[in-house]
Amino acid sequence: MKRYTQGRELLFATSFIALKSIVRSKQVLKEMVTSSKWRRSTYARKPDGLDMMEVINSSQFWKKVVDVLKIQKLLVKVLRMCDGDEKSTMGFIYEAMDREKLDIS
Fold it and tell me: Which regions of the chain are under pLDDT 50?
């Protein structure tokens, strides 16, 4: 695997876990940016705070996050198959990729 990544480690799993955590926190994040305490904070009036509030309240953002999670899930599974101690045959890996692609659709 490292031959193809020029010796770098791929950390998709950590990104995947972090993104899943954000999705699980969607409702509380929305509650936070609509709370009166948030509206009174100085951060809520700063450009970064306003941008964050817009993103958290964007249904398009959350849809894209779910799409990215589906794709990352596939990549993490395939990378684990390729990088594991027990090497999978290419046919098995392709079959797994095809199954995962169907799940993404």
Answer: none
Is 82 part of a structural domain of the chain? Answer: yes
What radius of gyration, in Å, describes the C-alpha atoms of the chain? Answer: 19
Alpha-carbon span 100 to 4, nearest angstrom: 22
In a domain, 38, yes or no: no
Q: Domain containing 70: what range?
A: 12-27+59-104
Please write the tens of the pLDDT for every residue from 56-78.
999 999 999 999 888 888 877 77
- The total number of structural domains in the chain stands at 1
Q: What's the pLDDT at 50?
A: 95
Whether the CB-CB separation of 73 and 100 falls below 8 Å is answered with yes
89 — phi, psi (to 5°)?
Answer: -75, 155
Whether 68 is in a domain gets the answer yes
pLDDT of 85:
59
Q: Name residues whose C-beta falls within 8 Å of residue 32's C-beta, 6 or more positions apart in sequence.
A: 38, 56
